[in-house]
Each structure stands twice: as C-alpha cells, then as structure tokens.
Amino acid sequence: MEHDSTPTVRQSSARDAEDAWGEPPPGVRGHAMEQDRLDSLRSYGVLDTPPEAAYDIVTALAAQVCGTPMAAVTLVDSARQWFKSSLGLHLTETPRELSLCSEVVADARVLLVADARTDPRFRENPLVTGGPEIRGYLGVPLVGRDGLPLGTLCVLDRRERRFGEAEVASMVALATQVVALLEQSRRDRFDGLLGPDVREDARRPERLRQALEHGELVPWYQPVVDLRTGRPHQLEALLRWQHPGLGTLPPLSFMAALETTAMVVPVARHVLDTACAQLVRLGAQGLELPGGVAVNVAGGQLARPGLARDVLDALERHDLAGPRLTLELTETTELADPALARAELATVAALGVHVVVDDFGVGWSNLARVLDLPVDALKIDRGIAGAVLTDPRAATVVDATVGMAHALGLSVTAEGVETEGLRDHLAAAGCDHAQGWYFGAAAPPAGLRDLLRRLGT
Fold first, then answer.
1. Average pLDDT of 71-100?
2. In what order do the strands lie in the sheet with 149-156?
3. φ/ψ of residue 295, rounded to 5
4. Which of 170, 141, 178 lies closest to 66, judged by CA?
5. How far is it, in rounded angstroms, from Cα 324 to Cα 293?
6. pTM value?
C-alpha cells in the first residue's frame, strides 16, 4: 500500500476548516442529514489514525477485483476527504470540493462514472485534468450503524471504464467488510462504558435511530414547584423509551448507549422541540408555567456548533420567548471544547434562555462551570438535598450552597424532595424551587393536565 505523506494536491483549504462542523464548502452537496452524518463519522474516532493492514487488504482486493490501478477507503469529513487506506494514489486527503466520493455520500448510493472528463460535475476537477488523471470511477458508500454514510470504498482508473454488475456487487460486499472494521473500532472505543442495566436493543445504534424515527423516544415531564407559593413553576423534560415490546423504559436502560453514539444529538434536538410544543399546548389549555420547560443538554450538543441554532429554531417555531426555556448541564455533560461551549451558551443566554447547573454538589466540575459559564441557577443533587433531615453535613452543604448561589445572583432548586418535612426544611434553608416525588413523579403528556391541576396551576 502507498501512504505518501506529501500529497500532490494542496490541502490547506481542508486543513483550515478541519474542525468545522457546519455546512459543506460552497458548491459541495451535503447529505440530507449532513450534521448528523458528521456527528456519526466522528463518533468512530478513526479520522487521522495511522494506516492499518486490515483496511489495506480490502483496498487491494477492490483494485484486484475491478482491475484498476487505484483504490481507496475514504472518509468524507466536513471540509475534506481523508484516506484511511489507498493504493496507487499519492494522497492522504483532499479538499472536499475535489472529492468524487463526496457525491456518493451526498446521495448515499453507488456512483458509476465512465469518464470523468465528460461528466459536468467532475470535468474541471484538478484530479481529473491533472494527476492522478481520474477517468473511470466506482464508489460504494460506507453506511455505518447509525444508518448514515461515512465515506466510500472506491476504485479509480486512468482510462475510460464501464464497470459491470459483478464488479459493483463485489465492491458492495467488500464495503461491508470495511464497515465491519469501522464498527469494531467503535466498539473498542466504547468498550466498558455500557453497564449491565443497558438493554440489548439500546446497544444497537440502528435500533435507537429506528426508535427516534418511529416516535418511541418520548419526553415525560416532572414538575418543579415554587417553594414560596407552592405552585408549579416549571416542567423538566425527562426522556423515556416507549418500547413496543417491553413497555416504558427509564433512561437507565438506554441513555448510556445513546450517549456513546451520534444519535444523542438528534434525540436531544427532538426532546427540545417536543418539550417546547408541549409547553405551547399546556398554555392553550390555560395551564401557564412561569418557568416554562427545562431540557437536559447532552455533551455532544456542546462538542460542536449548533446548540444555539437549534434553540433559536425551536423558540421561533413555537413562538416562545427565551425565558420560557431552561437548559440543564449535568455532571456528566462533558465539555470537550470549553471555549466553544461558552460561546454557544452565551448566545442562548443572550436570548434570555436560562442555563442551570444540575446535580450540583457531586463534582468539582460543577463549581468550575458556575464560574466559567453564563449560569443563572443551580439544582442541588438529590443525594444531598434528600439527606438534610438525617445528615448534618448534607444540611451544611445545602445552607452553604444556597448562601453562595444567592450571593452570586443565582436561584436554587432542590431535587429529591419526597416528604413534607423535607420540603419545609429546604424552604426554610432558602431554596427557591423544589422537585421530587412529593410533588409528583414524571408523567406522560397525557397525564400532565391532571398533575398540574392537582398542584394548583
């Protein structure tokens, strides 16, 4: 295999934007679900990894089966095409606008080109007019377990070629072997992250995507109560899986698996949109909530640009003001790029959207987030707030947290409130809001009207 580190095509345009997460370069067609496709691609952790013999073997077989001097396994990133394996090509990557494989990814189907010089899409491409002088091309999409195309297995010739059905069938079969190698890489990457409570269905990303597309992933809602008035202040959206065979599954059964795939971002976007729609429906029924609705933010949403755009789109779509929405950052919401996270959250905060640090008290990162991010509220972890009646240390932590938060101009919500005595203690400690089974467990949309009216809305 040839892995020349000095490509014949200048790569600066791709490198300048290698971390971009937006639309493809001007003039380049993206996949219908381009952002989700990029999230899926990057979840494999394969980009920019060293050559591997297993991929090289498949590449060589592809060239042999089709009788071509060139073949490659390519992964199509936002602004570049990167070669995991190549034969007969002195390239490690090219700008995406020069990539024939980008067309395969855009349509997620096999592409046959007999002579690139006569194809209006490619005839002016420097890879056609100059080295390596591409003429015939056959590209097969590499479709991952998220159901989205990641790149291609392709063969290329320096002469006009009309590939036959047998050659296409062989390439499709070899492409499945490449996908199997990619999936093994992802399994190795996330090995050990899924606990025994995660259902077998949830371990298959394609099943999670099906669950999203079939409307099985549905937010339920738990009330957050104003401790001064005793009335509902807000609803928190909590995801459930309405499994057709197993009934309603709690997050413990699938959330960890969701967070190890690119599916976590479209699911979070779905929850955001659904929660905003639910808030509007409640308002139409005369059930107003001063604090609106809260949704959890997944780490993947803050790993690339897009959260602020998604929030703005949801608010505009449902004609909601920013203060009607709260975004909650949990202890497990990893900030892979703190500067990017700050920028995204600052943008939503400028819209009036509230930003809350959830599970406060269980990790040092939460305190850092209070100081570093545009936060305007804290939620005290249920393990601490729920123990104030029996553990003096927990009571001291709550008192100190409330004092610090109020000194910083932040409101405080206590989680895990299960008894009247606990509610009274937390109210006396100065907590502004409370949440827990004492007020009501998370309810499906159909049960919200009765729940809120029982609480005095």
1. 95
2. 93-95, 80-87, 70-76, 149-156, 137-143, 111-113
3. -130, 150
4. 170
5. 6
6. 0.70
